Amino acid sequence: MQITNLSKGWKIGSVLIVLFIMMKLFSSCSHGNEPLQALRSVKVQTGDLEVKVTATGSVKPYNRVEIKPPIPGRVEEVLVEEGEQVKKDQVLAQMSSTDRAALMDAARAQGPEIVKRWEEAYKMAPLLAPLDGTIIVQNVEPGQTVTTADPVVVLSDRLIVEALVDETDLASIQLGQKTEIQLDAYPKEIFAGKVYHIKYESTLVNNVNVYAVDVLPEKVPPAFRSGMTANVTFIVKEKKGILLVPSEAVAEWPRKVPRPKDAEFAVYEKTFGGKLVPLPVRIGDSDGKITEIVQGLREGQEIQIVQKKKTSQAVNPFAMGGSPQKTGSQGQKRA
Asked: Which of 18, 61, 278, 282 could form a disulfide with 294, with the two C-beta atoms 3.0–4.6 Å apart?
């Protein structure tokens, strides 16, 4: 009788062991040997997506023209100020040649009548604006002596932003492309602009090839100053009314699960029993935070953001009392 009970006990134990092993095998094979856990659920939404490329740059004149005197002498009058808009052929300053300056100084010692006579006979030389633009630098004051190498004023036809674009992003930049300009000096303001010119020669910056891209503001605001640091966002694509999910919800298709036809990536759905099931999807564009879903999901569908489950070191269920512990020389257990 005892032998019969013992035999039944072994049978029951064998069945339990087989079931345990099958459960372990099933769990290890699910999801490509990578157990997953759900972090949170999200719903597929319809919205708008902008794919952007960002770059840093600075405000600079597109054409910077230094107005220098044709002859050495003395500046008698400066008729413009920094920030002033001027027209082509407008008189910017009046100056005397070295000979005229010496003659006028001698005339002043003889009285106002002599000065007036020489002023009518020996006119000052005007400095004219060669183009329409803005005065961005005024270097001299009346009475200052200058040479032909000294700019009296500096003129700019327009202020632009020169952005330095990494060569890996250059394929996304096109002439006429819409941009957003943000100045470090005015971080809360965003100015609209467009790509005006893309340089053909690269520059090496921190061992990276970059290309200078000229961005023309739609309207140059008074806040713009030459030399200001700017951040430029290039609008690569704009899509409206498309299906969107958080980018972290999109994962590679599990290796051990048969890949359905046309499946590129997977998102995970939780079944009624709490099991995570991969769903095949095709994706479109992404801005890094949200991703377009081209095929495989519907608006309002609930999916899961998952991560690999953190597994602790496995313990042998068949070991009695766990792993043996070493003892010290006095027979005490070591910690």
From this structure: 282
Q: 86 Cβ partners below 8 Å, 6+ apart?
A: 80, 92, 129, 132, 133, 134, 135, 155
Task: Give the CATH number of domain 33-48+242-308; options: 2.40.420.20, 1.10.3720.10, 3.90.960.10, 1.10.3660.10.
Answer: 2.40.420.20
Centre a 10 Å sphere on the Cβ of residue 7 and count the other Cβ atoms it contains. 10
Residue matched to tokens 């713009």:
224
Assign domain 70-156 one CATH number from 1.20.120.1760, 3.40.109.10, 1.20.970.10, 2.40.50.100. 2.40.50.100
Separation CA 191–CA 146 (nearest Å): 40
Question: What mean pLDDT do residues 249-256 have?
Answer: 86
User: How far, in Å, CA of 247 to CA of 232, rounded?
Assistant: 24
Picking from 41, 38, 34, 40, the residue whose alpha carbon sits closest to that of residue 254 is 34
Q: Which pLDDT tens digit goes with each residue over 167-190?
A: 999 999 999 999 999 999 999 999
Q: Which of 279, 275, 272, 274 is nearest to 257 (CA)?
A: 279
Q: Where are the beta strands (DSSP E) in 62-111?
A: 64-67, 73-78, 85-86, 91-97
Ramachandran angles phi, psi of 139, nearest 5°: -90, -20
Q: Which helix (H) or strand (E) holds 108?
A: helix 98-108
* Residue 279: Cβ within 10 Å count: 15
| pTM of the complete model beyond 0.85 | no
According to CATH, the topology of domain 52-60+160-241 is Elongation Factor Tu (Ef-tu); domain 3 (2.40.30)
Strand-pair category, 251-252 with 302-308: unpaired
Residue 67 confidence (pLDDT) above 70: yes
- 93 DSSP 8-state letter: E
pLDDT at 72 over 80: yes
Among 259, 257, 177, 266, residue whose Cα is nearest residue 214: 177
